[in-house]
């Protein structure tokens, strides 16, 4: 009788303890499924979907290192002072740059919604006057929004981008073909058969020097003026372009509202062979004053640019450009670009400029009527794109 009672009591105790432990058991929640970044291949390589959205994002840019010597063609050779006697001397022009870029794309009922930005971080050994010294700056180069053909924001002038820049040389503005940075509102119509047209309303940027003649007939500096518009009337750029497999032809015309002057350029591109591509571009402006026109910065009324690219191989190319204006300024730039490995290119360039004159001033703006001056320089560039 006692043994039976003991067994029953032990069994009851075990059941009670087991029930208590079961009540105190920790319940482990099932892990939530991980949310991985999805590749977006709609707009090209490198895009991915921003998690939780339908917006595709790409992040990229480049790291660049330039080493220049001589006058480097465009008169931006670096100067320094001898530590012992104080004499002015030429020195290297060095500059390192990190450029960070972002692209976004999203399909909407009104077309593709895009953005593009580029921010540049520079460190060099010269200031704006050419004197040697540590020089660093940050520049917002691009920041625009585009919906369909409508674009608004910080961009480079459509006067230069719509028909294309000059040749694939580093110093392509030995004879300048236009200014660049501006805020704008533009619209591009693409007919889909190679034909496109554009209208752009622009603010401009930069500055120009004002000179007047004194009582003795000498030119005297009076003011440093803003290049932006001086009222609510914008600068206006109109353009048309036709492109096919053989190349293309394009034209742009610009109205400078501040000075009420016009300028225009016409360009022809020809893909002569699979290895050779050529171009020629001519410009004309009603204002022959080199200092105050945002759209005609060359000397005199007209200027011409020509050049091309010869591909030795998929990795190596020869690029050349010759330019000349009515002010008798001649610019020549030649380089060889070689891709060491994918994404890493080394470019060696030689530049030559024979300065011309326009009116009473030479190309450099000395207003002295001095004889022409020749400049020679070179640049070695290392660039890693990512």
From TrEMBL:
Function, in words: Forms passive diffusion pores that allow small molecular weight hydrophilic materials across the outer membrane.
Signal sequence residues: 1-22
Compartments (UniProt record): Cell outer membrane
Keyword annotations: Cell outer membrane, Ion transport, Membrane, Porin, Signal, Transmembrane, Transmembrane beta strand, Transport
Bilayer topology term: Multi-pass membrane protein
InterPro entries: Porin_alphabac
Protein's UniProt name: Porin
Family classification: Belongs to the alphaproteobacteria porin family.
Keyword NADP on entry: no
Pfam families documented for this protein: Porin_2 (PF02530)
Taxonomic classification: Bacteria, Pseudomonadati, Pseudomonadota, Alphaproteobacteria, Hyphomicrobiales
């Amino acid at each position: 009788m006692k043994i039976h009672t003991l067994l029953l009591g032990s069994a009851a105790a075990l059941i009670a303890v087991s029930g208590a432990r079961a009540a105190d058991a920790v319940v482990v929640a099932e892990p939530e499924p991980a949310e991985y970044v999805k590749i977006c291949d709609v707009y090209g390589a490198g895009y991915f979907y921003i998690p939780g959205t339908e917006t595709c994002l790409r992040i990229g840019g480049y790291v660049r290192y330039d080493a220049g010597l001589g006058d480097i063609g465009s008169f931006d050779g670096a100067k320094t002072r001898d530590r012992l006697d104080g004499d002015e001397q030429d020195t290297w022009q060095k500059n390192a740059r990190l450029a960070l870029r972002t692209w976004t794309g999203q399909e909407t009922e009104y077309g593709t919604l895009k953005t593009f930005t580029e921010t540049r971080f520079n460190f060099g050994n010269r200031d704006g006057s050419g004197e040697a010294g540590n020089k660093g700056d940050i520049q917002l180069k691009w920041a625009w929004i585009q919906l369909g053909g409508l674009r608004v924001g910080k961009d480079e002038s459509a006067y230069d981008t719509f028909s294309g820049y000059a040749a694939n040389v580093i110093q392509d503005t030995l004879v300048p073909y236009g200014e660049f940075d501006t805020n704008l509102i533009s619209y591009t119509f693409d007919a889909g058969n190679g034909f496109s047209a554009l209208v752009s309303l622009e603010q401009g940027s930069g500055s120009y020097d004002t000179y007047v003649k004194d009582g003795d007939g000498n030119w005297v500096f009076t003011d440093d003026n803003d290049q932006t518009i001086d009222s609510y009337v914008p600068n206006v750029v109109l353009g048309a372009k036709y492109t096919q497999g053989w190349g293309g032809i394009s034209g742009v015309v610009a109205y400078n509202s501040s000075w009420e002057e016009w300028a225009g350029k016409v360009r022809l591109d020809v893909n002569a062979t699979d290895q050779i591509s050529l171009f020629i571009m001519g410009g004309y402006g009603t204002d022959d004053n080199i200092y105050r026109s945002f759209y005609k910065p060359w000397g005199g009324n007209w200027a011409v640019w020509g050049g091309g690219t010869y591909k030795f191989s998929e990795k190596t190319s020869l690029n050349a450009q010759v330019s000349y204006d009515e002010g008798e300024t001649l610019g020549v730039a030649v380089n060889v670009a070689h891709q060491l490995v994918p994404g890493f290119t080394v470019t060696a360039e030689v530049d030559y400029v024979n300065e011309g004159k326009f009116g009473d001033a030479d190309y450099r703006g000395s207003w002295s009527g001095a004889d022409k001056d020749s400049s020679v320089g070179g640049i070695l560039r290392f660039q890693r794109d990512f």
